[in-house]
From TrEMBL:
<dbReference type="GO" id="GO:0015341">
    <property type="term" value="F:zinc efflux antiporter activity"/>
</dbReference>
<dbReference type="Pfam" id="PF01545">
    <property type="entry name" value="Cation_efflux"/>
</dbReference>
<dbReference type="GO" id="GO:0015086">
    <property type="term" value="F:cadmium ion transmembrane transporter activity"/>
</dbReference>
<dbReference type="GO" id="GO:0005886">
    <property type="term" value="C:plasma membrane"/>
</dbReference>
<feature type="transmembrane region" description="Helical">
    <location>
        <begin position="20"/>
        <end position="41"/>
    </location>
</feature>
<keyword id="KW-0813">Transport</keyword>
<dbReference type="InterPro" id="IPR036837">
    <property type="entry name" value="Cation_efflux_CTD_sf"/>
</dbReference>
<dbReference type="InterPro" id="IPR058533">
    <property type="entry name" value="Cation_efflux_TM"/>
</dbReference>
<feature type="domain" description="Cation efflux protein cytoplasmic">
    <location>
        <begin position="222"/>
        <end position="297"/>
    </location>
</feature>
<keyword id="KW-1133">Transmembrane helix</keyword>
<comment type="similarity">
    <text>Belongs to the cation diffusion facilitator (CDF) transporter (TC 2.A.4) family.</text>
</comment>
<dbReference type="GO" id="GO:0006882">
    <property type="term" value="P:intracellular zinc ion homeostasis"/>
</dbReference>
<dbReference type="Pfam" id="PF16916">
    <property type="entry name" value="ZT_dimer"/>
</dbReference>
<feature type="domain" description="Cation efflux protein transmembrane">
    <location>
        <begin position="20"/>
        <end position="214"/>
    </location>
</feature>
<feature type="transmembrane region" description="Helical">
    <location>
        <begin position="53"/>
        <end position="70"/>
    </location>
</feature>
<dbReference type="InterPro" id="IPR027470">
    <property type="entry name" value="Cation_efflux_CTD"/>
</dbReference>
<dbReference type="InterPro" id="IPR027469">
    <property type="entry name" value="Cation_efflux_TMD_sf"/>
</dbReference>
């Protein structure tokens, strides 16, 4: 038997959209400020931050679009909803960050061979410092909201802004170092270091998006679900196995096999499955749609079954089997 819980439509779509709109407006303003700093200083180091700000604008624009798509209800063509669009948003953001980093590496490498004069570094440092502080505050806010609203897009956009804050902080230090030492070659060398860091940040986002698109197991989520099931376990739930989880945006889709006493009628089976469904949705902290296939118990289950007053028990209970990642994801009853 299987049970599917009809989840309510996400009531936080407007809040997500408003956060992304704010991020988009801020990104445009800060991009103009950073390019102004570049034209004032002619510094490649400043250009690294300005180039990444273009990515911020594009990424926020696509994030706004992806949140709109993800909020659409399920239809015949998308029976699991549209939540996976968020993984595409993260992939695009990571790819753009990586491209920006590669471009910075080429530009800095060329300038290292053919150095160009820089000037007004203190003015540039002040502008970049202010933009970095704004991005940092907005990034922390978006990450917290991403966790609260279960939005991968908000979380990814927020982490990108934190990356921007780190690079901006390093840029300010670098500009001051160049200003006081007058070593112009530092402009290109520091740009190369930042470019490598940006490429690595882009790779991490791409890796995260590909993992989601390939339905890679989120072990932290599954471990938490297993912990909840162990804490609330009932004697009727003899074992759970073949547990699999997939994430579609802010929702989790979970299926498993559940062994119940074979003398339960259909109403009792439905009652137990409904309890598991309700338990996970209330305690696991993520909206979850469950598909539970129920198996009848066999005599081989008796040695670890806790069901009291069982009329068909063939032997007394001898062991307690805790549900762990190892035995709950296998497609086997626990006695096998």
């Amino acid at each position: 038997m299987s049970l599917s819980l009809n989840l309510p439509r996400n009531t936080t779509v407007n809040e997500k959209r408003n956060i992304i709109i704010v991020a988009l407006v801020v990104s445009v303003v800060l991009m103009l400020a950073k390019f102004s700093a570049y034209f004032i200083t002619s510094s490649n180091f400043v250009l690294t931050d300005a180039a990444e700000s273009i990515v911020n604008v594009v990424a926020s624009s696509f994030a706004l679009f992806s949140i709109y798509i993800a909020s659409q209800p399920r239809d015949e063509n998308h029976p699991y909803g549209h939540g996976k669009i968020e993984f595409f948003s993260v992939f695009l953001e990571g790819a753009l960050i990586s491209i920006a980093g590669i471009g910075i590496l080429f530009k800095a490498g060329y300038s290292l061979i053919n150095p160009q004069p820089v000037h007004d570094l203190l003015v540039g440092a002040i502008i970049i410092g202010v933009t970095g502080a704004i991005n940092g505050g907005l990034g922390y806010y978006m990450i917290n909201k991403g966790k609260t609203l279960k939005s991968l897009t908000l979380d990814a956009d927020g982490r990108h802004l934190l990356t921007d804050m780190v690079t901006s902080g390093g840029l300010v230090v670098g500009l001051l170092l160049i200003y006081f030492t007058h070593y112009l070659w530092l402009d290109s060398v520091l740009s190369i270091l930042v470019g490598i860091y940006i490429c690595y940040s882009g790779y991490r986002l791409v890796r995260k998006s590909v993992a989601g698109l390939m339905d890679e197991t989120d072990f932290a989520v599954v471990e938490h679900i297993i912990e909840v099931l162990n804490d609330q376990r009932k004697p009727e739930w003899i074992d759970i196995h073949n547990l699999r989880a997939q994430k579609y945006g802010h929702e989790l889709h979970l299926d498993c096999h559940m062994t119940l006493p074979n003398y339960f009628d259909l109403n009792r089976v439905h009652q137990e499955v409904t309890l598991v469904d309700k338990l996970i949705n209330e305690k696991a902290g993520v909206p979850t749609e469950l598909f539970i296939h129920t198996d009848p118990c066999l005599p081989e289950c008796c040695h670890y079954c806790s069901m009291p007053n069982c009329p068909i028990r063939s032997e007394p209970k001898r062991v307690d089997i805790e549900w762990t990642m190892e035995n709950i994801i296998r497609n086997k009853k626990h006695y096998e």
